[in-house]
Amino acid sequence: MIVVEGLAKRYAAGPRRPWWRRFGGPGGVDAPVVGVREVSFRAEDGRITGLLGPNGAGKTTTMRMMAGLIAPDAGRVLIDGREVQAEAGVARARLGVLGDPRGLYPRLSARENIAYYAALQGLGPVAAAQRIEELGETLGLGPLLDRRTEGFSQGERMKTALARALIHDPPNLLLDEPTNGLDVIATRQLRATLRHLASPAGGGKCIVLSSHVMSEVAQLCDEIVIVARGRTVARGSVATLCAVAGEADFEEAFVRLAFGEVQQDGMPTLTRPL
Ligand SMILES: Nc1ncnc2c1ncn2[C@@H]1O[C@H](COP(=O)(O)OP(=O)(O)OP(=O)(O)O)[C@@H](O)[C@H]1O
Asked: Which positions fall inside the ABC transporter domain (predicted)?
């Protein structure tokens, strides 16, 4: 289970020094950029939770703090009760992270890429080899396992990166925009795999994914957390969110919740309170 409590993150702005001031004179400093203002939610085991929000809403920043890749300015993340920032090693051992699938080593085969992560996770060579075979079968990697990843299609990269994230059989899984660049068949395969992983037969994993594609989140996720302007503005099933927004259609509900009229305090105006 993953609990996210009051996360906030600002990115420091670099010095602004126009070219005509490069050799002297005052420069300036841009205001810090707010990545996340206040994001809180709970993701349960055996369920797929989707972070849905428009571009720049703060989804990736939230996911990176959940993975322990960047430190929050405020708030905390608990992975199965262990705080990511305080007990990084223990918390991360219980977490698989699917980030950018372009980050594979091109000269290594898929098997070698995955085995490298297995070693980083402390798996011995025999256990790693066995687990790679299992994952190869579950994810349909087959003959790809022994091909160099250079030249892999987006879908092939995604499967390899997912196998890498699952190598230590973590009970929790984070996926940032997992269907980016996938065609309809690869998207369907990924959906089926994620549903399996969340089911009792697949280990009842706690899965959190981020996306700005509404239909994808609506189809796949049991629970949806809407993030807008760096805040969680609503959470619940598709039916709950439609009811909260007072809309029959999920796209309309999303637009109302994510882009609702902004009050003085920066919170969107909702037709009904959350
Ligand atoms: N490294 C960084 N330095 C400065 N600003 C950043 C940095 N990373 C993100 N931001 C800013 O933080 C805000 C949130 O960005 P983030 O990438 O988390 O949003 P997102 O919801 O994932 O967006 P998208 O759907 O477009 O990927 C944006 O305004 C972005 O410009």
From this structure: 2-254
DSSP 3-state percent helix, strand, coil across the chain (nearest 5): 40, 25, 35
pTM of the model: 0.87
Distance from C-alpha of 229 to C-alpha of 43, rounded to nearest angstrom: 21
Q: For ligand 1, is residue 59 a contact (CB within 6 Å)? A: yes
Q: Indicate whether this complex's ipTM tops 0.90.
A: yes
Q: Residue of the nearest CA to atom 12 in ligand 1? A: 35
> Residue 231: CB within 6 Å of ligand 1?
no
Kind and range of the H or E element at 1? none
Q: How many angstroms does the Cα of residue 56 sit away from the middle of ligand 1?
A: 5
Q: Where are the alpha helices (DSSP H) in 67-200?
A: 88-93, 110-120, 125-138, 154-166, 184-198
Return the H-helix or E-strand segment holding 31. Answer: none
Residue 43 C-alpha from the chain's centroid: 12
DSSP 8-class letter at 84: T
Ligand 1 atom at shortest distance from the alpha carbon of 53: 21
